[in-house]
Amino acid sequence: MRFLQGNISARFKVIYGVFFLIIISSTVWLSYLSSKGGMEDQLRRTNTALLHLSQQKIEMMLHEIDTSTINFIQEPDVELFLNGRYASDELRLNYFRILNTRFKTLMFTNSNISSFYLYSLANKSLLTDVTYSDESSFYDMAWHDAYVSMKGYGEWLDTRKVTEVSSGLQIEKNMITLVRTYPLISLPQFRKGAIIVNVAESTLSNLIQDVDQQRAGQTLVINNQGMIISSQNKEHLFHSFSTIPGAPEISEFKDNGYITTHSKSGSYTTFYLTSSYNGWKYISIVPDPEMNRPLMIVRNLLLVVTAGMFFLAIVLVFAVSNYTFRPLELFFHSVAGKKSVRTGDLTYMEQFFKQMISDNESLQKQMNDSLPALKWRLIMSLLMGDKTNYNRMKPYFHTLGIDLYHKQFIVLIIELDRIQENHTPRDVYLFTYAISNVADELIAGVCKGTSVELTDGRVTVIMSFESEDSQGNQIQALQVADLVKNYVGVHFKQTVTIGVGSPQSNLEGIQISYEEALNALKYKLIMGDNTVVSIDDIAGSNYNEKFYRITALIDSVVNLIRETDKNKLRSQLDKIFGEVVAGNVPPELIKQMCIQMIMKSIKVISDKGLEIKEFLDPKENIYDRIESCVKVAELKSYMSDFLHQLIVRTEEKRLSKGHHDTIEQVLAYLEQHYMDSDLSLNLLAAQFELSVPYLSKLFKETTETNFMDCLIQIRMEKSKELLLGSKLKVNTIAESVGYNNVQSFIRIFKKYTGLTPGEFRENLKKGEDDKNSESVSG
After folding, report:
1. Most Cβ neighbours (<10 Å): which of 39, 148, 485, 677?
2. Residue range 499-512, pLDDT digits in tens
3. Cis amide bond preceding 618, omega within 30
4. Local mean pLDDT, 10-residue blocks, the chain (778 residues)
């Protein structure tokens, strides 16, 4: 008010400035409100149209695959396989070659098909583009329950994990599966087989991504139960839709439309469409700030226009004021002199400068308080490879107090051991902070560098060197790591494990050294706590040969499970884990080996006709339990206890079973007629006047194996006797034990013994020659 009373020019400027501000602001605001509703409606229609486009792309692809599948299953060669009608093994092999060509043609013409198989109900067998397998030994039978319970003629199954076997490796993929029955239109009791087509879930998410690039938000595909079956974020798969931030309740969905929800994390609009083809729901969740960004742009543009118009109005006010009132005001001052000047006229200037000084001090304080956060963010950018130009980053280093050489860099990662066992979250935070400070001090005595608290319990250190002596710099980094480890042990009474990366010659290499340090740190599982692990300690090893050797030992463990030999089991486990530690096998492969060992053992138990549910604790997740192990000794103890328990429970189950005379007669019949090429379970059932299902179940419960495995075992043992005791040719031996096709005999013999018949005979001959030479020398 004192300012307004100071002079006429000031009052004119303030009054007319406020007037123009009100007029201009009101005009622009009313324009914005009048157009806001129409723009919001247009944005919703656009998001719905883009979601509909994603649905059309996906369902067009699914329809195309379904049509190709229907055409393929009607081919005569396919029908012949599904009906299981082949006059001889040679004819079946010939048709398999033809089917293999058709398989490749179908997958070539439709690149969206990841894999598919034909399932013959008559033969209980499956055929793929690379293999022919019995139902009991096929790697993927998770679709079978849906096939048995399916009411219609075809169904798209939700996303599932499929572990495919390719070139001896197990590859886990997320698949969406089409199950189409054969014949195409038939009641469940008249089905003769099916075709199963797997489509990678990533194919759907890629189609969604092509559309999502045009807008904000994320698009998902869910089933009727609300489980996510496709998403660009693979961590969402197999989880409930309700876990997505801003997701509404499934019960609120109708056929098509949108729902706006408000939560602590913000406001979201969910657009949804329901497919009439497979019942899936296509859902797009868009944060309202992102969806309304065009509105924000319009609003900001109007604000700029308002500011421009107000600035122009103020310029005009000042111009008119200076032109009209300034001469009059100068006249009054010249006449009245100093008497017209009031002491309070310029008080506002003093207040302005005081405020400016206060704001500057506050800004400086905020800058100092934010330096640690800015430093953490910059170092994380270096570790992630986002910042790679040293000259461009040098000013930022100087501002944040980071001093680095530019010749060579090495990254260390320091991890506090046994965080969950002995420390509260506050203790972990304090130890992490202290270790970071210790690392800074110890680095300063060797080179230049910096450290940052990566997470609670983990510190990342970047060391930089003036020279390019890689070997010398690596030695210095290892010395610093040892100093840190010893200092923490002496002064903090704690232990740390430190991973050390390799020297890199530029900022871009910091990311490489960081990833190497992370990999080295994983070897804590093998080397234990309170160790320094360099990338040089683990690099260059040939893991393949060792892992194949360990895989062979795993098979021996499985055989011991089959034989229920507890004593040999423990010694074999000692041998396996001894080779793991001695061979410096990566931790990921060790855990994969353990999971594979458990899965194979479980399959052995299942093959014996025993229910695996009786052996497993439903409250314990095997995968999580193995992942939680931090030492090889802990992993070995868990595996030993688990496998030992399998044997104990198997023996208990075996003792509870009775003896059956019929199976003894069947086994005796097999010993006498194993050479008959047409010997089958159906023939045995007819011979002993039993039903096939009953005989199969009786066989499995009594012998703890199935008919085919037992027959193969008898034939292979007879083959080994003939290879050892005669000079007959391989094809003659194959016919003698019931195989008309010598290639089938060789393949089964190698699978059973690990050697071809020729290699088996050569090994026997070599062994006899060695014995003869030893007896002669003796």
Report:
1. 485
2. 898 898 888 888 88
3. no
4. 52 73 79 72 82 87 88 81 72 77 81 87 84 85 87 87 73 89 82 90 84 74 87 84 82 83 82 86 83 73 78 75 61 48 44 63 68 79 76 78 84 83 77 86 83 84 86 81 86 87 84 84 73 71 55 74 78 80 74 77 70 64 74 81 78 58 82 86 83 79 79 88 84 89 87 85 72 57
Sign of the CA dihedral running 523, 529, 535, 541: negative
Rounded distance, CA 535 to CA 412, Å?
Answer: 10
578 with 532: CB under 8 angstroms?
no
Q: Is 235 exposed, middle or buried (0-12, 13-18, 19+ CB in 10 A)?
A: exposed
Give the CA distances from residue 500 to residues 98, 454, 734, in Å, rounded to whole numbers and listed in that order: 56, 15, 58
pLDDT attached to residue 604: 74
Question: Cα–Cα distance between 310 and 506 in angstroms, integer?
Answer: 52
| 640 Cβ neighbours under 8 A, 6+ residues apart | 569, 570, 573
Q: Which tokens is 311 given?
A: 């600035």
pTM of the model: 0.40
| Side-by-side strand order, sheet with 132-134 | 132-134, 125-127, 115-120, 193-200, 169-182, 154-166
How many alpha carbons lie under 13 Å from residue 92 in its C-beta half-sphere?
17
Determine contact, residues 682/692, Cβ cutoff 8 Å: yes
Q: Is 749 exposed, middle or buried (0-12, 13-18, 19+ CB in 10 A)?
A: buried
The letter for the amino acid at 324 is T
Q: Put the strands of the sheet holding 228-231 in their side by side order.
A: 228-231, 218-222, 281-287, 266-274, 257-263
List the Cα angle 227/229/230 in 5-degree steps: 135
Query: Which residues fall within 8 angstroms of residue 375, CB to CB, at 6 or more apart?
Result: 400, 401, 402, 450, 452
User: What pLDDT score was predicted for residue 773?
Assistant: 62
Contact 259, 284 (CB under 8 A): no
Q: CA 533, CA 51: separation in Å to the nearest integer?
A: 50
- In the numeric block, which tokens belong to residue 650? 């198997």
Please give the helix or strand (H or E) that residue 728 lies within, else none: none
Rounded-to-5 percentages of helix, strand, coil across the chain? 60, 15, 25
Q: Are 606 and 700 in contact (CB under 8 A)?
A: no
- Residue-wise pLDDT tens digits, 382-404: 888 776 677 787 787 777 778 88
Hey, what's the torsion of the CAs at 158, 161, 165, 168, to 10 degrees? 170
Instruction: Quote the CA–CA distance of 495 and 275 in Å, as a whole number.
Output: 57
Beta-bridge partner residues of 409 = 464, 504
DSSP 194: E
- Integer angstrom CA distances of residue 743 from 96, 714, 730, 734, 740: 14, 18, 10, 9, 9
Sorted by sequence, the CB contacts under 8 Å of residue 528 that are 6+ apart come out as: 631
Distance CA 441, CA 648 (A): 57
Alpha helices for 194-262 (secondary structure H): 201-212
User: Under DSSP, is residue 131 helix (H, G, I), strand (E, B) or coil?
Assistant: coil
Q: Are 454 and 462 in contact (CB under 8 A)?
A: no
With beta carbons less than 8 A apart as the criterion, state whether 507 and 382 touch. Answer: yes
The 10 Å CB-count burial string (b at 16+, else e) for 112-127 is bbbbbbbbbbebebbb
DSSP state, 216? S
> What are residue 125's DSSP bridge partners?
120, 134
CA distances from 183 to 153, 155, 729 (A): 9, 14, 44
